[in-house]
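hey m, so remember when u said the tokens were messed up on ur end? i reran from scratch. heres the input so u can diff it against urs
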Amino acid sequence: MEHGVFPGEPVAGPDLPDEVIDRYRELSADIASGVGVVSTRLRGRDYAATVSGFLSVSYDPPTLLVSLYAEARIAEAVIDAGSWALSLLPARLRGTANWLASPGSPLEGLLNQVNYGRAPETGAAVIEDSIAWFEVRTTQVTTAATHQLIVGEVVSMGRRAGADDEADPLLHFASAYARLAR
């Protein structure tokens, strides 16, 4: 049953007022998403960051996309390396998510307080106890507003979590970490 036209707030033009941007942030924060860690290895150095902007693009061939802020170290490193890993976090690894989301995290020793192993093809860090992990070779990079959308074909994948963690993913909702209510 149609209920007519809902009143909305117009969003138009290249120079949006701060109020429109703030309202968009408020409304888009209600998009629930999983939380993961994207990582890469470049010139012998590990790079990693917490992400919630990722998605499965295709099953055949297995393809993923991650959205990274274009000015972030991780975006530059992932693009330059041409490969990356995505580790999906269980709720109990909220501390890892917080650490790798912290602005100004150290470049040297970034993963010293994180349990991880190495992906078999590229050596990118895979977070221990991750619900699932994917090792990816980049096939396309596209600029979208302030972000780089990085698409890649999965070259290996696996699971590092136990049954309890598999049923309890870390989520991002309303600008905060959350858990599924069961």
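this time it looks ok to me. Residues 58 and 64 are 7 Å apart (CA to CA). if urs says something different then somethings off w ur setup not the seq
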